[in-house]
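Sequence design from tokenized structure. All designs in this work follow the same two-part layout: the structure record, then the generated sequence. An example of the structure record is given first.
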């Protein structure tokens, strides 16, 4: 008997260098044995040197993509990445508000590595008020957690306070990623902090110092979504995603003139 095909959806921007966004997510889904579907929110001119330009797709095209996908496929998990504007956040959250049976993982893409602003202040507000309440998991890094919570993170208590503040937006779980963890917190770099509204959990793994970190947040959130589709609990899915990320970093090679991508195979 043929193995049942499982579907996972990414709603994000297109990266012309395939290091992040839609292209990276599809590679990650495939490497987990899943069929990846996509809804493109914006097209970026992007390479290993950074994001040079971005063009947002019309709202009706984004909504048409969503309808097309949901009319034809049984989706088990969704991850969102670059949503580009308040209008895109609005159309995506409005469409997903009745999809409560699907686990939604929100990777809040706010600023690129070279400082290109990926979402406006109004978009960030709508992310908190419209999309977070629909989400099973939100996965900000330290800079994103600071923006979303309004808390400057310098101590371990700040990490917990930021997680609680984001959780209060209505999401079921918050995972603050530790790749940018300040030494002053006393938490090792690379340790991720999960808050489920009741308890905090720390996820440790070997920290791989690599120059090839383009798309690292995309790969991680796509891997978490994939492992959830494969039947893992949230905690196990995070552990598996961190292990996958470590192996991907180990295998990555420098390509291009700037910061190379994590996901290359």
């Amino acid at each position: 008997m043929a193995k049942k095909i499982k579907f996972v959806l990414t709603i994000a921007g297109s990266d012309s260098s395939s290091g992040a966004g839609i292209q990276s997510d599809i590679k990650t889904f495939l490497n987990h044995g899943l069929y990846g579907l996509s809804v493109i929110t914006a097209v970026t001119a992007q390479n290993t040197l950074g994001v040079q330009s971005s063009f947002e797709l019309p709202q009706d095209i984004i909504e048409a993509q969503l309808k097309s996908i949901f009319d034809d496929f049984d989706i088990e998990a969704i991850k969102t990445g670059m949503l580009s504007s308040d209008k895109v956040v609005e159309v995506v959250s409005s469409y997903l508000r009745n999809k409560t049976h699907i686990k939604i993982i929100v990777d809040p893409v706010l600023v690129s590595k070279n400082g290109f602003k990926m979402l406006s202040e109004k978009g960030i507000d709508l992310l908190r008020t419209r999309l977070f309440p629909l989400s099973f998991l939100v996965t900000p890094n330290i800079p994103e957690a600071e923006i979303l919570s309004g808390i400057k993170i310098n101590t371990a208590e700040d990490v917990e306070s930021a997680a609680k503040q984001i959780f209060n937006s209505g999401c079921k779980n918050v995972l603050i990623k530790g790749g940018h963890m300040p030494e002053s917190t006393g938490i090792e770099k690379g340790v991720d902090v999960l808050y489920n509204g009741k308890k905090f959990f720390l996820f440790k793994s070997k920290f791989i110092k690599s120059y090839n970190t383009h798309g690292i947040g995309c790969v991680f959130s796509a891997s978490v979504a994939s492992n959830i589709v494969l039947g893992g609990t949230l905690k196990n899915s995070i552990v598996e995603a961190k292990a996958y990320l470590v192996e991907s970093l180990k295998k990555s090679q420098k390509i291009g003139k700037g910061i190379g991508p994590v996901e290359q195979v």
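The chain has eight helices and nine strands. We note this feature because it recurs in several other targets discussed in the main text.
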